[in-house]
Amino acid sequence: MKIKRLDEELARKIAAGEVIERPASVVKELVENALDAKSESISIELTDGGIGSIIVHDDGEGMAADDIALCVERHTTSKIALEEDLARISTLGFRGEALASIAAVCHLRVVSKTAADDMAHELRVSGGKIGQVTPAARAVGTTVEVQDLFYNLPARASFLTSSRSEFFHCNRIIHRLALCSPSVGFSATHGARTVFSAPAVSDLRDRIGQLYGAEIGRQMIPISAEKGGLTVRGYISSPEVKRGNRRDQILSVNGRAVDDSGMSYVLQSAYHGILRPGVFPVAVIEIGVPYEEVDVNIHPRKLEVRLAGRHAVQDLLDRALKQALSSRYVVPAMSTNVGQSEGRIPTGSSPRPQLDLRQETLMRQGSNQAQEVRVKSDRRAIGQLQQTYILVESPDGLEIVDQHIAHERILYEKLLHEVQEGAVSQQRFLLPVRVELPFESAAALNAEKETLARVGIDIDDFGGGTFLVRGYPSLLVKTQVQYGFQELLERVVDALQQGVKLKETLFDHIIAELACGAAIKAGDRLSLDEQQELIDRLLTMENPYTCPHGRPIIFAISRHDLDKRFKRS
């Protein structure tokens, strides 16, 4: 007989391995238990990154003596009783495995008191061996102490990293849980040092400010949407606040922090054209879903959930994000310490071409600067700064608009609309334009001739790295002819060589490059009438605040800030 029944101690260690991966796993389970107990304040004490000890205190409902004796046994819980309860789980924990799994691989002490009891009670467990419940002293609530994690599981202990690294993981978990529960106070110490303190707050923005700093808290953009029992609430960062990874993106479903690739993709897609590739926003987003439409019992550590209406949730999130990112929240305020803008802005080093901007559906040409300009919006152009920036009077003060990026956004959205409608108007050249490219660039361009045709570019491979441009989008052709096609096609090749697989994303890359190439440049002089027409058209765009490459179009200086600078009362 080859199949054997495992002894209880070995079975407990195997079960613990599924739930308890490292000290951060213990912190997560204990803090979630404290939140389920309706705690208003939770403190976490760590030594040696949590490897030495983890102590979690809470002021929740506490446990009576009989409950303390049961809580460390497997599959004992107060959160569900019947099979149908699995269909409506509203608590963070529900399996009754956490304390039993933790107790199997450490020295555990639990002290708890309810409001109805005269005294607290204590229970000790070592490596799964349960002791007796004895009287103890503490206020209402629960304390759980974990000492010498994995002392009896050396194979698992050998995979732990340095104390500093393990503390980092614990701290990340604490931050995630604190962001999901702003109405609960949190504090944490590591050794003798207080590393985190966040009193209870009523607004999530305040909790974000506690964790990331008040300045970032002020720069967060609120999002909100609801439909058919689904809700989306939270905050996302303005384009000025960005990260090199997704670590500061917290997504939660019914108060449970989750990892969801679908929602992460929706979030990143919403910032396309606002943040450059490889840069990520900060986000704390709470998704509200009817409990019966969520399956939380699909992951050993409850890090993932399954949603019955996954596409409806993603659509609602997408709507909330796009609504927020197309608002004036994304207009950065002008700072006294302005660094260089990201990306490359073309300069007017070449002779200024005679642009017929009216043919680009933008503006009327030949207006006299002194004549009265017709204003179609609440923004009035008042002049051009160094033939690069348009100064605009707004209801709130002064706005500075980059004329190249503004024109680029207008051309981009118009050409994108034509591509999406399958109706790109193309100008055929009587004499094709000759462009020469290196061999590897020529190969990349040749491989995507059909893609280029969809956005209005008709090219022939003449051999030896030489191409003939025979047609170009009508919307852009007049300006582009005057700037030439060599640099433009080199930038298109760069976009093709970025390894983008999705066709629509590839089109977007190319369209952005085409719009950038055809847009008016820094150094181009515009009449006041042209300036106003550019501003009016910009404000009708879906996103008038950032260019397709993620650069800001507008900087704002409020009247309040101007008054402060000039010391006006």
The value of Rg in angstroms is 30 Å
Query: In terms of quaternary structure, what is this?
Result: single chain
Report strand %: 15-25%
Unreliable spans: 336-371
Largest sheet: 9 strands, mixed
Distance between the termini: 92 Å
Note the total helix count. Answer: 18
Question: Going by CATH, what is the homologous superfamily of the largest domain?
Answer: Histidine kinase-like ATPase, C-terminal domain
Q: What best-fitting shape do the alpha-carbon axes yield?
A: elongated
Account of the protein in words:
The protein is of the alpha+beta class and 569 residues long. The protein folds into 3 domains: 8-198, Histidine kinase-like ATPase, C-terminal domain (Heat Shock Protein 90, 2-Layer Sandwich), CATH 3.30.565; 204-330, 2-Layer Sandwich (Ribosomal Protein S5, domain 2); 375-555, Ribosomal Protein S8, Chain: A, domain 1 (2-Layer Sandwich), CATH 3.30.1370.100. The strands form 6 sheets. Strands 1, 2, 3, 4, 5, 6, 7, 8 and 9 form a 9-stranded mixed beta sheet that branches. The protein has a 5-stranded mixed beta sheet with strand order 10-11-16-13-14, sandwiched between helices. Strand 10 and strand 11 (230-237) form a beta hairpin. The longest helix has 19 residues, at 403-421. The chain is elongated. The relative contact order is 0.09.
